[in-house]
Amino acid sequence: MGVVPKTPEELQIMRRAGEILQRTQEAMKAELHPGVTLKEINAIAEDTIRSHGAKPGFLGYQGFPASICGMINSEVVHGIPGGQKLRRGDLVSIDCGVIWKELFSDAAFSLVIGGGEAHPAREKFQQTVRQALLAGCDAARVGNHLSDIGHAIEQAVRRGGYSVCKEYTGHGLGYEMHEDPHVFNYGSRGQGMLLIEGMTIAIEPIIASGNPKCRILSDGWTVVTADGKDACQWEHCGVVTPDGLEIFA
Ligand code: MG
Ligand code: MG
User: What is the Å distance from ligand 2's center to 177 Cα?
Assistant: First the structure.
């Protein structure tokens, strides 16, 4: 399936899916303190999504058992929220999706439990990944090439001394959570398709603080860094415009 730009009506629905996801992120952030478990955060997410009359985008997706992916420290992506109590200084990334009237939103944030001062090195890492994401969103403008997004992300990540986990990418989204095209987090300028008006994508740098080599745990889902060092994910979804990505969530 090729890239299908969304209609103004579809974009309005996706904006609403994004708003509900933003409310859900706020509800989770309010409870992300030492002692809480990701299982509890998952319950907050699911309750918040359903209270808006929407559906969790992740629950049951390819058999995934929860409404969020939650990653602690060396976990990279696809973490199943569990019963481990979070500690001050832990680096946590939370990825979540919402379905509103059949259309998806998908976004992730990262933070240090107890605040940035609880672990300045992890705070610098997650802020760098966030800045890389914003650089990627800025490059997501009509007339740019797809690879300009990945180029911007990779440059920002490298400047910080970190590495892109290249097997994980952003993506188109709409009636499916993952639509064409892949949105890579690396590349040289001016490659791939031209970005067009109405194209809806998720941009998601997935970054290692050390070596980017990853492995999957025996639960079949959770990806961790092979060297045990920290990883971080940030993600926005939205629509390509002449001024960069209009961020839905
Ligand atoms: Mg996501
Ligand atoms: Mg995504």
Answer: 7
